[in-house]
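Students often ask what a 'structure token' actually looks like in practice. Rather than answer in the abstract, let us consider Isocitrate lyase, a protein of 537 residues. Its sequence is given first.
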Amino acid sequence: MRKTYAEHRQDLLARYPQGLTPGGVAIDDIIQLKLQNTYSTHLDIARDMAVVMRADMAAYDADSSQFTQSLGCWSGFHAQQMIKSVKRLRGTTKGAYVYLSGWMVAGLRNRFGHLPDQSMHEKTSVVDLIEEIYVSLRQADEVAINDLFKTLSAARKAGDQVAEQAAIKAIDGFETHVVPIIADIDAGFGNENATYLLAKEMIKAGACCLQIENQVSDAKQCGHQDGKVTVPREDFIEKLRACRLAFEELGVDEGVIVARTDSLGAGLTQKIPVSQEPGDLASDYIKWLKTEAITPENPIQPGELALYRDGEFQKPVRMPNGLFAFQDGTGRARVIEDCIASLTQGGADLLWIETDTPNVDEIAAMVAEVRQAVPNAKLTYNNSPSFNWTLNLRKQVRDQWIAEGKIHADSYPEGAALMSADLDDTDLGRETDERLARFQVDIAARAGVFHNLITLPTFHLTAKSMDELSRGYFGEGRMRAYVNTVQREEIRRGVSAVKHQHEVGSDLGDSFKEMVAGERALKAGGHANTMNQFAAE
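Now compare that with the structural description of the same chain:
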């Protein structure tokens, strides 16, 4: 339990009745540093944030409008600015998480260059990014609490007791910028032991929630690309257990595991599991394999395999690379079975169904089937930038209105023409935008989605923002482009990063210098500091 300002002061006065240490350090300075250090270790963060997630999950179970959200961040600074923005908007960080995307680690945060999402990057990069994000969020705490103590000091110097008590109340009521991270461990980067070892390092870096997928580790593909290969359910369950053991060993008893299934778009499997009895996990997996009849015209050849199915031997369809094919159109059924097995036998807490389009009805229908076996099944859902949201939802609206007789088939164009900007200010365009605005609310209410995330927003935002600024700055606008698109908006929105020296801890450093040097402190924040030009926080 975090001590209050008064409790810290009482403890320190018992040791130093004069209000100073033998070395001349003021006890208020000690209190400030203790309160700025909101977490001693990142493992403490994992333990606390797991409790936060569990409480949020319980709140969602009671009321589906209490879903949570996150944005994928590829640096600590992105995560810090996102959470500060949420805090300015809502006055709290509650319900806001950070998503750590393996795709963005591969594409932006590894030593081998910009790589596709195929587990080719160093797995230590994932751990490093978790660590970096929490360092940035904790520094946001330090900067904010330092500002509160400056307010307290000013109130005391002015002899304003009302302002002094208000400052102390603000210090005691401070809400940390530290929030849960849902961290992508891909397919585990190896076997179950490799998964366990990496999971431990991710948890020690602060991750309270691990998301793992049922693809083959050494053939992993992005969930929105072709060529995905799944593993038998027993193999995946072993990796779920590896993650659970890592949580338990490190004392993160409430650690959360998200089991992701890519079966909807995966048509291949690496191997055929061994079935011990009808209806076991292996037999339920094998039954979906594509097979060919063994006939005189299609005899079994040396080196080929045979399965005994429906009272006869059949040949499983095997690709030139040795992988086995599933029957066409079975992805949905395999997803349902994957989800149930992950929850009931793998001990997963949340599901992730990777879909090919954002369709609430389709996702809700799959979740309804899962909930027949596991009534409280909940999802994390990827509101992916891989979807063409405008095209998909405009098509859904158009098709629905045609089916309802509201419009004729020729009222709006088909296909890619639905992207036209000319449709923005039409009934179709407006209805689509309304559905986009309520998509997460709908999917939380109807499809059991506890957590809505966007995997790659900061990748796309950075690309777009740099294009926007570059086109203006290197074009005719020059400084006008920078001021109008960046600085003026920062000031008017109250984005604290406009005071970039303050944002990275310059005032924090000044405060520490004063703690140890008093009047001798050489400070950066004097009258000549140009940051004084910015009144906006």
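One point worth highlighting: The chain has a mean pLDDT of 92. Ask yourself how you might have guessed this from the sequence alone, and why that guess would often be unreliable.
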